[in-house]
């Protein structure tokens, strides 16, 4: 036994080399065991869920852990062979290994957040998901990567005892300057994301803005919402403005829309008969819904007519004006056939003869 110890003392370099080989072998075995263990955990966990997001996260965590194990093994090997290396070289090696670990962790966090972002966007409705993938997800991915790797660089500089206070101040001032310069753009982007998630309206809906503008939603973008008016004019409204004002959605949640027709009949007309004719005209139109049933209301004693209001509904809001026009045409024909007069404004003028005093 003493001979062995003497031999080891005389050949320390050989011992260090053997221990280094043992460390590398142990690192290799630990890496393989971690891989097998990760596969077992993945099968047990992922079979309970329907999504693939957990598979992705476990695979990323497993690969990052294997890399860190190899870095730890390399650290032990270099320090085991410290007799062959100078203090300066060991210091540089430790620094490089630390940088590798920090960037592996940063990459892991970034890689986990990206599929989580995709998974969340896919949980939204199809049209919103497509918009999010096209407009917001690429931007958020870049922002997430920039923030994570900036934090990683700060950790590295702090580890090497570098003064990071000036860097942090510069980043803060730069961020503030960018935020102030692009505050309207950022506000519109946040409002656009709010519109896509809250969904007060969708593409194709007919909306009425608080300003009185009415039209169909043509596009919901990152900065603005485009509305196509009845004059075929595209109105571009900043998302922040839409979020902060009252918006009437005329087609959601029920796409059926009301058709209103105001008609006047002459004084002396049989109102029951007139109302019955109007209801029959509505029921005869193929695009007027049976439920709710068409109705006619006597609304006012006008200057020249008895005012009636016809209310019916059609399934598609795009047909509102066409159906209303066809009903008016048919009402005119039926009234003329039935002898019901639609009066025009008229006035009765009474002329009084003035008699001068003293004359017969």
Please describe what this structure looks like.
By secondary structure, the protein is of the alpha+beta class. It contains ten helices and eight strands. It has helices at 2-10, 12-46, 53-80, 87-123, 126-159, 165-181, 183-198, 239-244, 271-284, 320-338, and strands at 206-209, 214-220, 224-229, 234-238, 247-249, 257-265, 295-301, 306-314. The chain has a five-stranded antiparallel β-sheet. Strands 6-8-7 form a three-stranded antiparallel β-sheet. A hairpin with a 4-residue loop joins strand 3 and strand 4 (234-238). The longest helix has 37 residues, at 87-123. The mean pLDDT is 80.
Concise summary:
Helices cover 60% and strands 14% of the residues. It is an alpha+beta fold and 360 residues long.
**Broad structural category:** alpha+beta
Give me the Rg, rounded.
40 Å
Low-confidence stretches: none
Gap between N and C termini, in Å? 164 Å
N-to-C SSE string, H for helix and E for strand: HHHHHHHEEEEHEEHEEH
Largest sheet: 5 strands, antiparallel
Morphology call = elongated
Which percent range fits the helix content? 55-70%
Main attributes of the structure:
360 residues; alpha+beta; 5-stranded antiparallel β-sheet; 3-stranded antiparallel β-sheet; 10 helices; 8 strands; elongated
């Amino acid at each position: 036994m003493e001979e062995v110890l003497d031999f080891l003392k005389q050949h320390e370099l050989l011992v260090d080399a053997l221990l280094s080989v043992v460390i590398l072998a142990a690192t290799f075995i630990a890496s393989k065991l971690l891989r097998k263990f990760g596969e077992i955990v993945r099968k047990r966990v992922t079979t309970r869920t329907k999504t693939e997001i957990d598979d992705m996260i476990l695979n990323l965590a497993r690969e990052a852990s294997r890399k860190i194990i190899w870095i730890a093994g390399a650290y032990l090997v270099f320090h085991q062979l410290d007799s062959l290396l100078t203090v300066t070289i060991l210091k540089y090696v430790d620094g490089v290994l630390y940088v590798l670990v920090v960037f592996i962790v940063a990459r892991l966090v970034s890689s986990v957040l990206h599929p989580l972002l995709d998974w969340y966007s896919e949980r939204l409705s199809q049209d919103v998901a497509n918009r999010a993938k096209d407009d917001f997800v690429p931007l958020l991915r870049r922002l997430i990567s920039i923030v994570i790797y900036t934090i990683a660089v700060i950790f590295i500089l702090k580890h090497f005892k570098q003064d990071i206070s000036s860097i942090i101040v510069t980043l803060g001032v730069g961020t503030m300057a960018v935020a102030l310069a692009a505050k309207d753009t950022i506000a519109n982007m946040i409002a656009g994301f709010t519109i896509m998630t809250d969904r007060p309206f969708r593409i194709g809906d007919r909306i009425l803005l608080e300003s009185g503008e009415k039209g169909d939603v043509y596009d919901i973008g990152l900065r603005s919402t485009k509305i196509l008016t009845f004059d075929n004019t595209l109105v571009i409204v900043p998302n922040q403005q839409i979020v902060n004002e009252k918006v009437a959605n005329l087609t959601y949640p029920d796409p059926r829309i009301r058709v209103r027709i105001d008609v006047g009949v002459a004084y002396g007309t049989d109102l029951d008969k007139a109302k019955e004719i109007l209801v029959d005209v509505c029921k005869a139109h193929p695009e007027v819904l049976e439920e709710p049933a068409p109705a006619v209301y006597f609304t006012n004693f006008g200057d020249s007519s008895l005012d009636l209001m016809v209310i019916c509904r059609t399934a598609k809001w795009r047909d509102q004006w066409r159906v209303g026009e066809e009903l008016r045409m048919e009402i005119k024909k039926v009234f003329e056939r039935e002898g019901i007069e639609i009066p025009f404004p008229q006035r009765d003028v009474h002329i009084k003869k003035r008699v001068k005093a003293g004359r017969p």
